[in-house]
Amino acid sequence: MTTDAKAKQSIKVNSVNDMARLVDYSLMDTLQCDPQASADGEEHNPRQVYSGHYVPVKPTPIGAAKYVAHSATLFDELGFAQSLATTPEFAQLFTGDLSDVPAPIRPMGWATGYALSIYGTEYNQQCPFRTGNGYGDGRAISVLELVANGKRWEMQLKGGGRTPYCRGADGRAVLRSSVREFLAQEYMHALGIPTSRSLCLFASTSEFVERPWYSENAYSEDPDTFVSNPVAITTRVAPSFLRVGQLELFSRRVRNNAHESARHELEAIVAHLIEREYADVIDATLDFTQQLIALAREYRSRLTKLMANWIRVGYCQGNFNSDNCAGGGFTLDYGPFGFCEQFDPFFQPWTGGGDHFSFLNQPFAAELNFATFCSTLEPLLSPDGKAELEDIRGAFSAEMEYELNTMWAAKLGLIEVESEFVLQLLKIMAKSSVDYTMFFRELSFVPNAFDTLLKCFYHRPNGERLAQWQAWFKTWRVRIEHQGDVAGIAARMKEVNPKYTWREWLVVPAYQQAASGDYSLIAELQQVFSDPYGEQTAEIEAKYYQLKPAEFFNAGGVSHYSCSS
Ligand SMILES: Nc1ncnc2c1ncn2[C@@H]1O[C@H](COP(=O)(O)OP(=O)(O)OP(=O)(O)O)[C@@H](O)[C@H]1O
Ligand SMILES: [Mg+2]
Q: What HAMAP family does UniProt report for this protein, alphabetically (predicted)?
């Protein structure tokens, strides 16, 4: 960070004018602009982008926009006054109208290209030109970067209109998916899991788009109708939005000798990733090869911890492709996601995701994304460097196993745990029908008898299954007693086993009511999600600490969904 940027840290931000004093563009200023880009930012049609890291784009504002919500927590972190969220200038900027922004905020934002690998296999088919040159931020447009309280944040509109990467789609996000992403990002943060964050959410009261969706009481796998929904823009923020897919795009171009600056562009984007996401852990004075090796090691560490965290809280990303895998090692793209209610190792809410991106398979998906990541660095390394990188890649699964065991031990209140003991539990859980969150939360009270846990079951276990449960529980209880300090163990377990999880059927009414202008349930959910490990009030407990009602099992749009946009 420059001294100038440091000096900007402690400003109290009451207005967009104050915000302007914090802006500090790095991507647009240090990376390469597409030489063919139109200087006025009016880039709203699909086209091939052959080189450069970004295309300047003016967002397309949403009509008759209404304030829906903002994150008070993030505002505090940024030093933003809460009242800023409802000022007309703030609304104008974050509903995509940059025509009046005060300098040095620029009157246009940017979109970036990225490549796609699905479960380790490269694809170009999703690009309308079948070359990969038309794939990237199709509706995500970054509008500024700023440094607040010593941290750099990029602010990105999701649903901000068409870009050259829109693939012919409308560039919009509907209110439904925007509410979900807005709430989920801040929930994940409250769970203590690295994630992109939510700044604010605005909805249009005049612009509607249709998406395939499910009619009331539809139990079909695929949507059976089209539903019109207001468009919305949620602004998400993160230190950067660089994805594995981005490095991949530039690395593929080096491999294919696409143009003479390809190698330089790859080097520049990797250096930029290090600067934006790893400056505190990677010494910029090391030679570049050493920085790349350190990057791979650190990224592996972040990814393995992230996977352990996702599993700890029952999160399933649903579509963990390289283009949804953030280079900074945090959670990104809350479209196809869900949280496991009744435990199922293959839980997968997104019908397009398949088993390979299902709940307990995520560590394998991450390993393949990591392999893709490593392969993007290869063209920049000598044979010795490549060998070192290969060792780092090869040790992913061992590190993953260590992180998973550490996580399971914490969830179970044990100092250490063998994979066999965990596997035994997961097998019984998979064969029973038990609520993942409630089970671990109730276990965190360290009950004396297994019967106390029966309220976590959708179907009461009996016969041989009950005997298996009782045997497992007895062994676990003996181990806990052996460790001593039961009260201390219970307290620590409650810090890793959340009480309140994301239950889709309790979120659906919030976005449904929002579509008719009632945002009160969104505010209530923000409150509940801000303290997932707390007991909260008896009223909140009665409403939100509940098993999923039978009618929502297999319900389209609740238990599964095919469209996340
Ligand atoms: N309505 C849309 N208009 C334009 N592009 C879209 C639209 N919906 C999705 N895309 C693009 O399709 C690709 C795959 O979609 P995906 O659902 O992963 O992304 P997303 O939810 O838009 O984005 P992100 O990964 O940025 O959170 C992305 O490159 C995205 O930009
Ligand atoms: Mg995506």
A: SelO (MF_00692)
